[in-house]
Specification:
Rna Polymerase Sigma Factor, Chain: A; Arc Repressor Mutant, subunit A; about 70% helix
């Protein structure tokens, strides 16, 4: 690493910290404009993170709103021990984890689409899935890249914790190892090992899908490569 590169990085970090300090001061003073700026700056990232951590991404809008309510109420207790970004992400992960635990406790009360919805005209049992079936072409059938994106998201949700969170923070949110370690309160080495394991698990889950995709047209394979980016080469990076 060159000295100029290191100095450039340090300057960037100092600039970010200075902006955080100014924004924090205005937030703690109760500035509505500062809070609006905070939401505009962090809402997309927080929403993206929360939607990928939750078991049901449809809950993401409500949980994201809860995150910013917590930020607004707790900003006076923020003393700058970490960056504003990592503090907000820590709150987001906490809220998403609480929602995920709630979902797990109440999962048994849900009615599956395999449940009987009564009898049809012919007297045979009818399931909810039969009533909800859409005969039209799905978006996945119309756009191969959307199918791939959805499949990757689906398999990502099946990864056990804490591997899923680390993969989301690193590979989808683009956070540094140091930031992830700070958010999770974990050692740097632990973060890297979880990332390697999480990526390996995701590749295993996607192996059959990738094999089938290799038989698709070139455009589909290109889309697959773009969306997966599970980064076999990244294992060396995490080591």
């Amino acid at each position: 690493m060159s000295a100029a590169f290191a100095v450039g990085n340090l300057t960037g970090v100092i600039g970010i910290r200075t902006e955080d300090a100014v924004l924090t001061t205005e937030l703690q003073a109760g500035s509505e404009e500062a809070f609006a700026l905070l939401i505009a700056q962090y809402h997309p990232a927080v929403y993206s993170l929360v939607s990928r951590i939750l078991n049901d991404p449809d809950d993401a809008p409500d949980i994201t709103q809860d995150v910013f309510i917590k930020v607004f109420r707790g900003i006076k207790n923020f003393h700058g021990d970490s960056s504003l970004r990592t503090w907000i992400y820590r709150i987001a992960l906490h809220e998403a984890s609480n929602q995920r635990r709630w979902w797990s406790r109440h999962r048994g009360r849900e009615v599956t689409i395999e449940a009987s919805a009564g009898s049809g005209y012919d007297g045979n049992a009818v399931c909810l899935k039969d009533m909800l079936m859409d005969e039209h072409a799905s978006p996945f059938e119309l756009a191969a890249h959307e199918e791939i994106r959805a499949r990757v998201e689906l398999e990502l949700r099946q990864l056990p914790e804490p591997f899923r969170t680390v993969v989301v923070l690193r590979d989808l949110e683009g956070m540094s190892y140091e930031e992830i370690a700070e958010i999770l309160g974990a050692h740097l080495g632990t973060v890297k090992s979880r990332l390697v394991r999480g990526r390996a698990l995701l590749r295993e889950r996607l192996a059959d899908f990738v094999l089938k995709a290799q038989q698709h047209p070139a455009a589909t394979r290109t889309s697959l490569a773009f969306h997966l980016d599970v980064r076999s080469s990244s294992c060396e990076e995490a080591g």
